[in-house]
């Protein structure tokens, strides 16, 4: 339990990054495809790096799933940053598949963490939100970039809140933390 409680701040950074990303998407809804690709690429890359770091710092079974989630985020971020001129439909599919795969990884990690922490359900909720977001994007691919920006912003804020709440729950598990 000490391993996960020492990395609580990684969850908080992921949550704050997601909330900031969501707010930026709402503040500038007419954002161009290039800027959206770059913002998503940086977000996915940072989220992946923090998930990867957390995965390598854990000694439990959830380690593998956090590493998988981190690798998926890093790969999605690299693809978005290397090919910024892709069409909105291609971006939509990158975001959708990233969300589904990363969400499944986080759901599995949350299930494995049930033995280590009480409030693992927040990681599971974050994973479910990712999967639902990805499915919605796949079901309505012609929704347009503006709709994608608003939907992505809404998802990012919800996901960020779930990760921030989880971070503070996990922090309570730290040795010497007050109950």
UniProtKB/TrEMBL annotation:
The chain crosses the membrane at residues 7-28, 34-56, 63-83, 89-109, 121-142, 148-168. Keywords: Membrane, Transmembrane, Transmembrane helix. InterPro entries: Acid_resist_chaperone_HdeD, DUF308_memb. It comes from the Bacteria. It holds the Pfam family DUF308. PANTHER family: PROTEIN HDED. This is HdeD family acid-resistance protein. It comes from Nonomuraea purpurea.
